[in-house]
Description:
The protein has about 270 residues and is α/β, with parallel strands linked by helices. The chain has a single domain, classed as Alpha/Beta hydrolase fold, catalytic domain (Rossmann fold).
Amino acid sequence: MTTTSPQIGLAKVNGIELAYQIHGEGKPLILVHGGYGSAEMFGPNVAALAAGRRVIGVDLQSHGRTPAADRPMRFETMADDIAALIRHFDYEQADVMGFSVGGGVALRTAIQHPQLVRRLVIVSAPFRRNGWHAEMVAGFDQMGPEMAEFMKQTPLYQTYAKIAPRVEDWPILVTQLTTMVKIDYDWAAEVRALTMPVLIVAGDADGLPPSHAVEFFELLGGGKRDAVWDRSGMTKHRLAILPGLTHYDINVAPALAATVAAFLDED
Length: 267
């Protein structure tokens, strides 16, 4: 695992500044965190993944070390930011991995900029809004700017307060994110058209049911037939349902890094 301090910087992309931190050396992996988080959201998995590759942890629009941006927050525009960041580093391609909200951003990056994504990893994120459990969707519908003060009691805010360039911009992040998660979407048709290898990961007690992860996998052509003894019946896509994990701990579970590293290292 890496022991040196990460390289931290700001990249100018699409009219905003995007904070990033770099760990390790090797093939690039863009790591995209969940809502209200930052690259730190992956905990020890950052170092675990960086043991064999160059991990670039990004802080999305208005999140973490990224200055608050005066523009609507959308999966599509943040995906364009990730693509611009890949180009900023002059990479022809990079692996992209996203968790939760970051999974939606990673998926949109692959849909909108397929030529830039070598392999795609989607962790605990659906391809359509109602893929979440019903109580999750109901929670999104009830969220609003007024949550900013209440959420100051959470670890998410405590991390934000330590690293944000302007801690007083917390209500901007909450307003932008709670607005975005109310927007309906269904990207099934675009998922079917993806050509790069995709790994779908979910916990067996996640915010989305395992059946949705299976449906996601099937959209890519996975799980349609027996692999046959020589594995000729397999697709290049993978599905992992990790046991005993929830939406609130899968991001830091050692099993996640082990599963992802094995997929990224496949020939």
